[in-house]
Amino acid sequence: CSGFPLSIFFIVINEFCERFSYYGMRAVLVLYFKYFLHWDDNLATAIYHTFVALCYLTPILGAIIADSWLGKFKTIVSLSIVYTIGQAVLSVGSINDLSDHNRDGSPDNVTLHIALSMIGLILIALGTGGIKPCVSAFGGDQFEDDQEKQRSTFFSLFYLSINAGSLISTIVTPNLRATECGIHTKQRCYPLAFGVPAVLMAVALIVFVVGSRMYKKVKPQGNVMLQVCKCIGFAIKNRFRHRSKEFPKREHWLDWASEKYDKRLIAQTKMVLKVLFLYIPLPMFWALFDQQGSRWTLQATGMNGDFGIPVQPDQMQIVNPILIVIMVPVVDSFIYPLIKKCKINFTPLKKMTVGMFFASMAFVAAALLQVQIDKTYPVFPAAGQTQIRLMNLGSVPATVQFQPQLQSVDVAPKDATDYMIFKTSQLQSLNVTAGLLKKTQSLEGLLQGKRYTFAFQWSGKGIASNLIFDNVTSKPEEGKNLIRFINSYISTVNITLDGKAVALLPSLNASNYTTIAGGYQQHTINSTTPLSSCTVSSKKFGFGSAYTISINDCTQGTLNITYFEDIPPSSVHMAWQIPQYFLLTCGEVIFSVTGLEFSYSQAPSNMKSVLQAGWLLTVAVGNIIVLIVAGASKLSKQWAEYVLFAALLFAVCIIFAIMATFYTYVDPNEIEAKFDEQEKEDKKDQNDCEKEAETDSKM
How many helices (H) and strands (E) are present in the chain, helices listed first? Predict the structure, then answer.
């Protein structure tokens, strides 16, 4: 078709579906750990990065299996089956009703869900990692030697399919997660968010198998990585055997492999090891880069996601692929040529150093943003402390004195104080004075680390009051809001919210908190008494807030209410994450693209797969670094962890810059040409010798 083998279209569609499956699942993974399995941020981050590390370790295994035993086609098919099963198991493990026998909305057997999830993720890591080095190479095998132009176009289409799958899935699966589904109780729809990627992976497998008869299947020819490893191993072993001073030193330690391996392989291995040595600092870049899907997604959960339509925290990851599509051509077509015109020698290693610096600055930006987010979080009581808020629901100003002589507070009508912190052991009672009336409320027996609201109301007969336990100990999750109602009316009221019954409240009693979706939609509040029924539309609550709504009285069918802010809504907008995404994407474009180009330019033609494996290994090690730092650091503030990572990468950036100054660029083609020429001369000499021997035998 237009000079292209028909088989490549099956491969491109397969890659699109597989990347949709992987990135769609990964986009919602950390929130699944946090909100469904109820892991804290550190554990969720640790397991997430363990999974990503495994995904980048298994490509080495996949390459060895394909090149040494099964071949690329059979490796892709067999591991895609494993991959599909893994996605299906993960989706089943996220079904809440699987173990929710008492139908209370929470799994009764969390261990079952964890076990299924971990089995699924291990199978996915084996599948996605195992086929990673095979699919693109298998596509390249479909072309003849004279189809270089078509092969180049294929790789462009292949890369486009990767980004398209990533982009679309990062939009779709967070929206699927945000919907509610369930048999008995409605929950965030993780089964659908994981189920759609599972279906796409099954489609990828089917499409790939359908094209089977059209593929050119190259037989396994042995894996060069194994040869390199054996060469290095023999050199070390041989050097150790001849460690005595009586044996003369050799120019390079790899020369000790010359007894068993030819000079070409040894020279090629030397070139590869020079580049791999430069890879040593690189994992630190990936340690920061891959936190987009963990720490940065968790950061977004505490922010305002209103962009005209609600944006989910895990959807902010879409900024990266969008910026890549924009910035790659801009950097290649404008930035690099401009630098060249300024006569600046911007070598590949210098580019990589600058890329690492940009990534470091991205985490400085993330730290500054986190400081602003932390300012919006409420302060909850620590151990040995209790918080009390005073709420005056009456029409007369009041003064409250905490005993024994702790604090005196004036409270205006229809108003409330902020939460005040006291040592629990010191609280005995409080005295309320409103007009000529007084009342004493005992405070003994209050719980440590908890919040209370003391609501009171003056009437001609006296001061009515109620000490209410506020059972909220953290900011609402996932940007949701909490609202409750308190009845300041003289008679019992029946309250409904959006047509659903909330509570039947006697005077001065409060309902439990009701969870509502985050955003700026309004809700209908209705209050019914034996004599009247009144309705009012609520205010827009935003994201992550908690409110107590006082039901006052009714005027011509309109309900009069008063809002008391228990927890302020998230005021820092998610758009403030864009600068850190921009800096990190700048770093990725300069670092990652240049790094791959540099590696390929410095590697012999038959050793490029070794460097590809080494490059993927740096990503795996980077994710392991996140595990170590997140687990070992005792930093209580998230912004401090961001600064730590930024400082570590900046230090590594300096080390890499120093290492780069000592690197000498080589031309592998030139070195290989010398070996080719030497081999020709050796072959010629051998032929001459054979002719001379033949002549001598005739004489």
Answer: 18, 19
Contacts of 550 (CB under 8 A, 6+ apart): 391, 393, 414, 485, 486, 488, 561, 562, 563, 564
CA angle 429, 433, 436 (to 5 degrees): 140
CA nearest neighbour of 42 among 33, 54, 29, 51: 33
Taking the alpha carbons at both ends of the chain, their separation in whole angstroms is: 63
Per-residue pLDDT tens over the stretch 333-365: 898 889 989 888 888 899 999 999 999 999 999
Give the per-residue pLDDT at 657.
Answer: 94
Record the tokens describing residue 671, joined without a space: 């070195």
Angle at 375 between CA 373 and CA 380, to 5 degrees: 110
**In terms of domains, do 371 and 386 share one?**
no
Q: Which of 513, 537, 569 is the last residue of a domain?
A: 569
As a whole number of angstroms, the distance between CA 135 and CA 148 comes to: 18
Distances (CA, A) of 270 to 92, 476, 527: 49, 57, 81
Residue 54 in tokens: 């495994």
Residue 531: inside a domain: yes
**Positions of the chain with pLDDT under 70:** 1-3, 145, 460, 605-606, 609, 676, 679, 682, 684-699
Two tokens, residue 575: 């758009």
Domain residues for 35?
1-222
Q: Rounded distance, CA 474 to CA 646, Å?
A: 29
Instruction: Report helix, strand or coil for 93.
Output: helix
Among 420, 422, 499, smallest CA distance to 453 is for 420
Joined together, the tokens standing for residue 119 give 């089995």
Retrieve residue 196's tokens: 């759609």
Q: Of how many residues is the chain composed?
A: 699
- pLDDT of 471 reads 87
Same domain? For 509 and 480 the reply is: yes
Same-domain check for residues 323 and 312: yes
- Please give the pLDDT value at position 148: 72
Distance CA 45, CA 486 (A): 39
Report which secondary-structure segment, H or E, holds 526.
strand 524-528
Neighbours of 631 (CB within 10 A): 11
pLDDT attached to residue 698: 57
Are 49 and 290 a contacting pair, CB within 8 Å? yes
> Of 217, 145, 265, which Cα lies nearest the Cα of 606?
265
196 & 78 share domain: yes
For residues 83 and 78, give the distance between their C-alpha atoms in angstroms, rounded to a whole number.
Answer: 9
Residues 678-687 as b or e (16 or more Cβ within 10 Å = b): eeeeeeeeee
Number of Cβ within a 10 Å radius of residue 435: 12
**Phi, psi (rounded to 5 degrees) for 38:** 60, 40
Q: What is the DSSP letter of 244?
A: S
Residue burial 573-599, b: 16+ Cβ < 10 Å; e: rest: ebebbeebbbbbbbbbbbbbbbbeebb
How far is residue 534's CA from residue 247's CA, in Å, rounded to a whole number? Answer: 100
Helix (H, G, I), strand (E, B) or coil at 519: strand
Q: Give the strand pairing for 385-392 and 398-403.
A: unpaired
Q: Does residue 230 lie within any of the structural domains?
A: no
Specify the DSSP class assigned to residue 378: P
Three-state DSSP at 456 gives: strand
